[in-house]
């Protein structure tokens, strides 16, 4: 990346992480500066780093470690890992952490997810903005500060077995009935972590695309796109499996399909896990972001828990987990957060809870989740707009004067009525609005969806 006077990293530093094209936006020199800025901003004297299977990841992670060590921090490199394994390492070792991954983005991308000790999140308002400012100034030619400490050490350590043991200590899978499970790793990091975790789980795994390959030769490692779970759905049916699991590139998200190969909505998975954890921890708080189904707070209340609605995004969820002491939190994007996992998100732990729930009773998964799929949902619909604010204002004006309609702006615009609701949120990185609609039936869903889209796209 070319740097110099007036360096602007706004396109690289996002709301929750660093992410861009290698080497045009992110290279080893810049990664080294991010490592130094991470230490300068957080004051961390001990750091753990990890990386995914992308071709650019090892060199970027090593450069970050060198930058951090140059400012006096001792660095443990755990090498190839999932993002939730990095969070485990941060919590288990009580060290600040940095994970090199671009999650589900194409191979030419890479990035950095950073956290403080105990997997505490770092976002724009919790240090990332300050890190960006330092990197911009140093990239423009300002000298780095002289460290107060001697150059730190950089050592290697393998934590995969410890990670697997920790997860299996949180969920009892010893009594599950025999299950056949198809797992699509998408050539991502679950190809490494699933064999380690499931080695001691009494199930039969049918693997798809477990070879680590950051060029993603089979399909994008983004199961949120229906096109990317077609192979999983077919394999579940062909193998007469009990369920299917699909992980994204860095394996922090887990998607579920039932025995028919039908996708199980992440909101239904959230409700299922919430029910399981509320049985173990009666009266607990459960978080859900504002795009999850109404089913989630309904189920939580029915089971005596306290639902709390949050903004979208892991830094907001994790902060609320800490503030409320919530036992669990779920997002529509299949991020699942656990108090017993340092309030961090882990797709693998979510998968184990689904398996434990399914395997300790006799119903098929489709029957089990039916009670958690109560409404019709649109999924996320994206529209390119020239002016996000004025478009949202037009939608607000068109709906909020109606009788029986309420609205709030916790995150974008949410408008609710008795038998439907929708949320319209601006993208943080593109001139785009994201619409989610839920209603009591498909007719009401189509009516509200089409009316909102007519206003957005006119």
UniProtKB/TrEMBL annotation:
Pfam families: PGM_PMM_I, PGM_PMM_II, PGM_PMM_III, PGM_PMM_IV
UniProt keyword annotation of Ribosomal protein present: no
Signal peptide: none
Alpha-D-phosphohexomutase alpha/beta/alpha domain boundaries: 12-136, 162-261, 268-375
InterPro entries linked to this entry: A-D-PHexomutase_a/b/a-I (IPR005844), A-D-PHexomutase_a/b/a-I/II/III (IPR016055), A-D-PHexomutase_a/b/a-II (IPR005845), A-D-PHexomutase_a/b/a-III (IPR005846), A-D-PHexomutase_C (IPR005843), A-D-PHexomutase_C_sf (IPR036900), Alpha-D-phosphohexomutase_SF (IPR005841)
Swiss-Prot/TrEMBL keywords: Isomerase, Magnesium, Metal-binding, Phosphoprotein
CDD domains the record matches: PMM_PGM (cd03089)
Names of required cofactors: Mg(2+)
Domain Alpha-D-phosphohexomutase C-terminal: 380-454
Family: Belongs to the phosphohexose mutase family.
The protein, known as: Phosphomannomutase/phosphoglucomutase
